[in-house]
Design brief:
Blueprint (H helix, E strand, L loop, with lengths): L3 H14 L2 H36 L3 H9 L6 H13 L3 H14 L5 H12 L3 H14 L4 H13 L3 H8 L7 E7 L6 H7 L10 H14 L2 E10 L5 E9 L7 H8 L7 E9 L4 E8 L4 E12 L2 E20 L8 E18 L5 E18 L12 E17 L4 E15 L4 E14 L8 E14 L7 E2 L16 E2 L2 E2 L4 E2 L1 E15 L3 E15 L11 E12 L2 E10 L5 E7 L4
Parallel strand pairs: 1-3
Antiparallel strand pairs: 2-3, 4-5, 5-6, 6-7, 7-8, 8-9, 9-10, 10-11, 11-12, 12-13, 13-18, 14-17, 15-16, 18-19, 19-20, 20-21, 21-22
Helix pairs in contact: 1-2, 2-4, 3-4, 4-5, 5-6, 6-7, 7-8, 8-9
């Protein structure tokens, strides 16, 4: 860069030899050269003076000096805001940092400092937003990543904390603690953990552990908490409610056994046999219209919680009246009694927090008796005999956004079967699902949103009980909450068909939470359609159901009270059901 005296000399020489118009321009340039450079030199000196006071921690003098001027550079605003922050003058510090950020929008120091100001005032959500802006400018900034991880940790968002802490090489585990100490074999529980003490805990490891703990099937409720230590490391606390035997005591055992007695159903569940996470879950329904005995035995495979197998026995005797509505005027489209016996085997693998798969087989026999013919009953749908079915399913975590506590999961499943009837028939059922789970607030569980999209298609000739049913019943999973699948206790009152589309949306508000009781209230909206070439089956039109529900959980057992309205017909549906166990 040319020194100022040399610049002046060159301008004088050019002015002596230039033509008159140019001579005027050169003299004008000379006139402006000295003030501009003098101003730049003055501004630089002023910033150096401010920086010197900052380095000497003379905060009041720095503030007085800056306030005596009309403004300053981005550097001056940085030191000025920092001095104000040291004196806890938060509003003024924030204004100074915002001014500096406007002057230098690509300087990461300003959003980091603004995050600090918000953090000191416990405005954690705002602090996180500023830190995300800083990391957009420099994703590798260790301090900002560590800071943002700490903010999410204080908000109770462990997934978000791990995402950013991991970039800063944190958190290092010292111990894994259990509260209370579970009865399950300690080596089996240790194998379920995808991490180990004295190592870095990562977000994928925690998600894999969560999946495998859930796969053990003996923990009614659990959570992981990090506890900071004085040495900078962390202890991981596994808080759990374990299910053992019939229950904790005879009172709980009686409650669990008879919890569904209003639905003419008994349960016999025995968990954690031999402390090996082996369990028997059984249901006996003595309803004269739809008797059922279901027994399931599951266990880890070769003492490895990554794999789990299950044996299933299912006996049914059900009376069906296929009708056009579950209430009000209705047309009978046929009726029958179904006898079905089945035995099945499933094998599941919990590969990682990203995906899991299941494969299985089922051998069954069905018989249709007391058939009253109708337009909905074709010979193909009433095919009876032995059936062999192959099942497979893949579940994938598509997107995980821990900053916003938002997850997207997907699933694909296939059921291929052959029936040895007269004549023999085969069919294939394909289904896909997309699930969204979101906690709208930055911390806590006061609000929770679920949305699920599902679709299915059938190829070939399935028997009647293999059709998709869009309606509420404890044996079904495709719920339209303004439609009940039974009428006068008999199945067949909900739309059904070979193909379907279903959307279920719900929002829950946690309104009461005490030691043993949880209560959630919220609205829901369902829409769906089912199609079938057989007259009388299929919904023919899109269905829309809206309503509200209350979820009550006592001693870990959940009950759902729902009211739904069919927006097409105006029918009202009141229903009580048990929440599915995790």
């Amino acid at each position: 860069m040319l020194r100022l005296p040399l610049v002046k000399e060159l301008l004088f020489q050019a002015a002596r030899t230039a033509r008159p118009p140019l001579n005027i321009l050169f003299w004008a340039a000379l006139a402006f050269a000295t003030p501009v450079n003098s101003w730049a030199q003055t501004a630089s000196t002023f910033e150096q003076q401010v920086e010197g006071l900052y380095q000497q921690k003379r905060w009041p003098e720095l503030i007085q000096l800056v306030q005596s001027t009309n403004g300053g550079s981005s550097g001056v605003n940085f030191y000025y805001g920092s001095a104000l922050a040291q004196l806890q003058r938060w509003p003024e510090a924030e204004a100074a940092f915002r001014a500096g950020s406007r002057q230098q929008p690509h300087d990461k120091r300003f959003p980091v400092e603004l995050a600090g100001v918000a953090f000191k005032q416990k405005r954690y959500g705002e602090s996180a937003r500023w830190l995300r802006r800083a990391l957009a400018l420099d994703p590798e900034d260790t301090y900002a990543n560590d800071f943002l991880g700490t903010v999410y940790f204080l908000q109770g968002n462990l997934d978000g904390a791990l995402k950013y802490w991991n970039r800063a090489g944190k958190p290092l585990l010292a111990n894994v603690l259990n509260q209370p100490a579970p009865q399950i074999d300690s080596s089996l529980l240790d194998h379920a953990l995808a991490f180990s003490p004295a190592s870095l805990l990562t977000a994928p490891q925690l998600r894999t552990t969560d999946l495998r703990i859930k796969g053990l099937g003996i923990f009614r409720d659990y959570r992981f908490d990090l506890q900071a230590r004085d040495d900078g490391k962390f202890d991981l606390l596994f808080q759990n409610q374990e299910r053992n035997g019939l229950g904790k005591n005879w009172k709980e055992a009686l409650f669990l056994t008879f919890r569904s007695i209003p639905f003419e159903t008994l349960h016999f569940d025995y968990f954690n046999i031999g402390r090996e996470a082996r369990s028997i879950v059984s249901t006996y329904r003595f309803d004269a219209e739809k008797r059922r005995l279901l027994i399931q035995y599951s266990s880890p495979f070769e003492h490895n919680p990554k794999y789990r197998y299950q044996w299933i026995g299912d006996l049914r005797s059900e009376n069906w009246n296929v009708q056009t509505s579950f209430q009000g005027p209705s047309t009978l489209l046929g009726s029958f009694n179904l006898r079905r016996e089945a035995i099945g085997f499933n094998f599941a693998s919990f590969e990682s927090g990203r995906w899991q798969w299941m494969a299985g087989a089922e051998l069954s026999h069905r018989d249709f008796r007391s058939v009253v013919p109708g337009p909905a009953l074709t010979p193909e749908l009433l095919a009876k005999g032995y059936q062999l079915k192959q099942l497979s399913q893949l579940d994938v975590a598509l997107l995980h956004v821990p900053e916003h506590r938002l997850t997207f999961d997907g699933a694909l499943s296939s059921q291929a079967a052959r029936i040895w009837s007269s004549p023999a028939r085969s069919f294939e059922k394909l289904q896909a699902a997309l699930r969204t789970h979101w906690f709208p607030q930055a911390s806590g569980h006061d609000w929770e949103m679920h949305h699920q999209l599902r679709a299915g298609k059938t190829f070939g000739d399935p028997p009647f009980d293999e059709l998709f049913i869009l309606g509420m019943h404890r044996d079904e999973e495709l719920w339209m909450r303004g439609h009940v699948a039974t009428r006068d206790g008999r199945k067949g009152a909900a739309p059904m068909g070979r193909n379907y589309f279903l959307s279920n949306w719900e929002l829950d508000k946690n309104v009461y939470h005490r030691h043993l009781v949880d209560l959630k209230l919220g609205p829901f909206l369902d829409t769906g359609k089912t199609t079938d070439p057989v007259p009388g089956l299929g919904s023919r039109k899109w269905l829309w159901d809206a309503g509200a529900q209350a979820k009550v959980r006592v001693f870990g057992i959940g009950v759902v009270f729902s009211y739904g309205k069919d927006l097409r017909t105006g029918n009202n549906a009141f229903y009580v059901s048990m929440l599915r166990e995790p």
